[in-house]
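Structure in, sequence out. Go:
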């Protein structure tokens, strides 16, 4: 059993130690990265890249500080929560616009379909709406419809 574990370990060691990456330019001018040398007849000879195998899951070369999985998860959760809040705000705005659209359509229908419209005069009585006021209200309703009914 020990020999089997040792043999498997040696296979993995040699597989990672012998892995090479080649960089070369093909006949179309595209840069190719492969694990085997470029085919013969290539104008631009390839170069063998020195690739170091990773030694763990968090393999940075000192360029950026190491981050833990918990920190990454926390940042992800914060971004997700922010997106959910933004989506909720947009949905609330869309619902409000829909309500305003329905109200504006109702106002337009009232001012265009009703022959005589009465409104309160502010002193406890009522007064009839003349054609100028009616036209102004129709224009206001059309503007509201254009704004909220998208």
């Amino acid at each position: 059993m020990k020999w089997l574990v040792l043999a498997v370990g040696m296979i993995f060691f040699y597989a990672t130690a012998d892995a090479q990456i080649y960089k070369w330019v093909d006949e179309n001018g595209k840069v190719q990265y492969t694990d085997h040398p470029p085919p013969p007849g290539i104008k631009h000879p390839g170069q063998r890249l020195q690739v170091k195998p990773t030694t763990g899951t968090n393999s940075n070369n000192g360029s950026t500080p190491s981050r833990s999985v918990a920190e990454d998860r926390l940042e992800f959760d914060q971004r997700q929560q922010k997106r959910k809040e933004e989506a909720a705000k947009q949905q609330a705005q869309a619902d409000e616009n829909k309500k305003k659209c329905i109200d504006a359509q109702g106002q337009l229908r009232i001012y265009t379909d009703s022959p005589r419209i009465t409104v309160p005069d502010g002193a406890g009585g009522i007064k009839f709406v003349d054609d100028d006021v009616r036209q102004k209200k129709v224009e206001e309703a059309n503007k509201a419809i254009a704004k909220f009914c998208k």
